[in-house]
Each structure stands twice: as structure tokens, then as C-alpha cells.
Amino acid sequence: MNESIKADDMEKLIGLIEKIAVSKHATIAMGVRDPDPDTVKCAVAAVEKDYADVILVGNQAEIEKAFRALYDIKDETASELPFQIIDTKTPEDELVSLLVSGKVDAAIRGTAKASDSLSILKKACHINKIHRIAILLTKDGNPYFFAPVGIDEGTTTEDKIEFICLGTHLLKRLGVSPHVGLISSPDEDGKREAAEIVRIITEEKKLHVVDYKLDLEEAFEHSNYIIAPNGITGNLIFRALTFLGGGDGLGAPILTDRHVFVDTSRSAGHYTKAIMVASALSKKKK
């Protein structure tokens, strides 16, 4: 990564997010389906690290069973839970309801169903499109922001411009100076689109973006916010870096004006960090 970017803010970003999360100590709801001890362990760790007060939204009996298995507790009446449980058979509905009603400061999807959760969220928040920005840690521990990662996201020029504008605002909220790197297709349509994006972002939006074409290495070397050609490509790059490249995902905040919802991958299991991000981004005052 460019040394000026590192020195400015990126090197300390994770520590900063953690510090903000602890200072806010928000109330975070997490969707739970088919809970296992590892999932529950993530919630317990978030409470122990003082990131948030955690509410698990799902089948209470199953969550309590997973908790007892985690600590090898035999007596069903002897365990005092470090988190609250809201018992429901439809965690997707309840999770969004808690969020939009203001009963919690933020929410993470956890192991709730992705398509149902996002569909309900869109309807409740009266939004037509979802804009998720993944927070990625490389194997070396360098943090990056990355979008789009949803397979139906970033399909148009306008959508990519919206991602850049919303994402740079998110970075600035966290005290990060945005350095946007655009990855573009080498065909004629890709070249025209990239040129249009750069023109609009620099001339009309007064933001800075560099088109690195297909040079992913250069983009990661000199940028802290990477824009993929589309959601399918972005999803594949993100999965390759996390599951094959030894990286780590901290969740993908969905950018809305009023509410904070952090999307997570059911296969990742790193919900402690997603809770940390949700607490830090919440509207709760320090």
C-alpha cells in the first residue's frame, strides 16, 4: 500500500473502529438460524470485548442449547447468558423490525437468510437498491474497503458512481482519507464506462478516483477503496482474497441514511468483528 495512505490513517483503522465501538457500546441485534457453539461464541466475545450489548434473534431453545454446548454446561437452569435472546421463528422479520423501530442501534445479519433479510430491509427502509461495502483484511493485516460484492450490484455506471460517493462518505465517517481505485474491463464498453466514471467523479462530484484497468495489484498498492467491474467479479475477488488468500472479512455495511445494517457471510463466522463494525457505525453517541 502507498506509504502516504498507510501513514495517514489505514494502518490504525482497525484499532480506531474498535475504539469507537467500545466508546459507543451500542445495542446490536444479530440474526440467528441453526445456531452452533461457534456462532454463539462470537456473540459472547463481542460482549467480553465491550463492543456492544448483543441481542440474538432466533430460536431461544436452540440458542441456549448452543451456549450450553460451548461451555459444556449440563444443567439447563444453571447458565446465565451474557446476551439477550428474542425468541422467534422468523429472525429476518424480527431483526429488521428491531432496527427500523429504533429498539436497537444497529443490526448484523449473522446467520439469518440473506435474500429474505435484504428484501425485508429494502421494503422497510423504502430503498430500491442495496449498496454494500465489504471491509477486508489481507493476510498481512492491511485493511481495505471493497465494492460491489453482491452479484446483482454495480451493474450500471450510475450504480458504480453511487457506490463511490456513498463509500467515500463512509470512509470519511471513520476518519479515513479515501483513495478510490477503479478496476475496469479492457473491452471498448469497459473503457468508455471507466472514462465516464472518472470524468463524473472528478469533475462533478469533486472526488478522486484512478482507473487501474485490470491491474489489481496496483489498485491494492495505491488505493484503500476498490471498485470492481461488477458485483459478480467483486464477489469472486473478495472470496478469493478471504477464503484462499488468507484474508479476513469484517462484514459489509449496507449504506442507508437512517439505519446501520452489516451484512455477513454465513460461511465466514467472524461475527464478533461485524458486531464491532456495527457498533462503531451506529448512530448512538459516544
UniProtKB/TrEMBL annotation:
Name of the protein: Methyltransferase
Organism of derivation: Methanimicrococcus stummii
